[in-house]
Amino acid sequence: MQLLNAFETTFDAPVEQHPPAAPSVLELLNMADTSIQRLVGMAKKLAHFRQLDQQQQTWLLKGCAAEVLVLRTSKMFNPVSVSWQVGQC
């Protein structure tokens, strides 16, 4: 329940309300940065994560950041149009 609550209150909101039609590389990097910041915020809400020392927290976050971005991005892919729907997750 704690994990679900942390996810819903920190990580599950849309990255951007009004994304550009064709985002630039910089805008995509900013969206990734926002996702990483939300991941850190979500992790800090978990009691077991807070019990780890700072080095262990850093290792966990670095180890999962790429996977989280891939999973989050996969939610934005539209197989019907074979395109990425930026701003949909």
Give structural notes.
- 2% of the residues are buried.
- The protein is elongated and about 45 Å long.
- The chain is mostly helical and 89 residues long.
- The mean pLDDT is 80.
- It has one domain (2-7, 24-84).
- Strands 1-2 form a two-stranded antiparallel ribbon.
- It has four helices and two strands, in the order ααααββ.
The neighbouring-strand order within the major sheet is: 1-2
Helix content: 55-70%
Uncertain residue segments: none
Instruction: Estimate what percentage of residues fall within beta strands.
Output: under 5%
Structural class: mainly alpha
- Mean pLDDT, rounded to whole units? 80
Shape label: elongated
What is the N-to-C succession of helices and strands?
HHHHEE
Query: Helix segment count?
Result: 4
The biggest beta sheet reads: 2 strands, antiparallel
Distance from first to last alpha carbon: 22 Å
When the domains are counted, the total is: 1
Radius of gyration: 14 Å
How many distinct beta strands? 2
What's the structural blueprint in terms of helices and strands?
Blueprint: H1 2-11, H2 25-44, H3 47-51, H4 54-74, E1 77-78, E2 83-84
Antiparallel strand pairs: 1-2
Helix pairs in contact: 1-2, 2-4
Summarize the structure.
By secondary structure, this protein is mostly helical. The protein contains 4 helices and 2 strands.
